[in-house]
From TrEMBL:
One of its GO terms (molecular function) is glutaminyl-peptide cyclotransferase activity. SUPFAM superfamilies: YWTD domain (SSF63825). Keywords: Transferase. This is Putative glutaminyl-peptide cyclotransferase. It comes from Lupinus albus (White lupine).
Amino acid sequence: MMFVIYVRHEEQMAYTEGLLYGGNDTLFESTGLFGESSVRKVDLQTGMVEELQKMDDSLFGEGLTLLGERLVSVMLTGPAYDQWPMENLTVFQLKLLFQLTWSQKIGFIYDQKNLSRLGTFNHDMKEGWGLATDGKVLFGSDGSSTLYQMDPQTFKAVSKQVVCYKGHQVQLLNELEYVNGEIWANVYMTDCIVRISPNDGGVLGWILLQNLREELLEEGNIGIEVLNGIAWDGEQKRIFVTGKLWPKLYEVNVFPTKEPIEEGVIEQLCLPIIF
């Protein structure tokens, strides 16, 4: 089952790269495209953008995640701190948003409350695509079949797992979300979400959502792109999904299929061919 939660106004359409639920009927969203990338706070009920932090035009925003309140050391940047370099490193107790960029191998740290930028970080993935957390470690994707686990203090990879399904690598892992002990990942260029075990990278199952994009196309939304964006409300057990340049956000209820899926269907729908 699916429910339309909100319909975006045209001026609020987004090339969604990262999506998460922040509590109190609030979503946080990272948007992409050079010249248009941003981080924004969105009202879940209306779709209205309440706060927005635009990125430099040279940057392409990607995955986004939120770590719970904790003490963190952050290197502050800007003219106000340049004259006191020894005092740039300070400690905050904040709820922090971490955002990846596509090809620059850098990320940004924001205060969840007002989206003020607090600092930057570097990572050792090939590119930045998806980002999620279980509250202890960061999970990252770089468009390959590799699921990274990273130390949230150093952003260095502590483990790498290749995600495979029936002997085939699941390439183009994109946006990530931690859901009830699993990693859910959009598979780029498909309408599929793959459920991954964070313990060994094994595929636990698939969520097929091709009906959402098909419905949008039938309604005349010819400019939409692929499914991308998963947000999990752990308290109320709600899953929200959207896509790049989609006018709608959906709440979906996931159920097992009544009939077995025919052999080869998942490979055809969910495993993109890499040339």
